[in-house]
């Protein structure tokens, strides 16, 4: 289960959210102030993206057809 790091844009609180699946769409809110204006941090995958020799649309390290920031 992937864990994504988020950071609240309102109060700056960093927090982690555990997703049961990569494609799960859940609403993420800051646990401190409740704001939904949060940004996802990609630190957990930063080392993989851009370090693959595979071409195509995907990054080669996941099954998603588009795994870039959107
Ligand atoms: Zn907050």
Low-confidence stretches: none
Number of E-type strands: 3
Distance separating the two termini? 21 Å
Structural class: mainly beta
List the total number of helices.
Answer: 0
> Sheet with the most strands?
3 strands, antiparallel
Tell me, briefly, the overall form. Answer: elongated
Helix and strand arrangement:
Elements: E1 3-8, E2 14-18, E3 38-41
Antiparallel strand pairs: 1-2, 1-3
The protein binds zinc ion.
Zinc ion binds at residues 8, 10-11, 13, 30, 32-33, 35.
What does this structure look like?
This protein is an all-beta fold and 70 residues long. It has a domain of 39 residues. It has no helices and 3 strands. A 3-stranded antiparallel sheet has the order 2-1-3, with no helix packed on it. It is elongated, with a radius of gyration of 14 Å. The chain binds zinc ion. Zinc ion (ZN) binds next to loops.
Features:
70 residues; mainly beta; three-stranded antiparallel sheet; 3 strands; elongated; binds zinc ion
Question: Quick gist of this model?
Answer:
0% of the residues lie in helices and 21% in strands.
């Amino acid at each position: 289960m992937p864990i994504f790091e988020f950071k609240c844009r309102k109060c700056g609180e960093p927090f982690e959210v555990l997703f049961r699946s990569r494609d799960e769409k859940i609403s993420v809110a800051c646990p401190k102030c409740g704001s939904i204006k949060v940004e996802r941090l990609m630190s957990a995958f930063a080392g993989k993206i851009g370090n693959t020799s595979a071409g195509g649309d995907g990054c080669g390290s996941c099954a998603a057809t588009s795994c870039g920031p959107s």
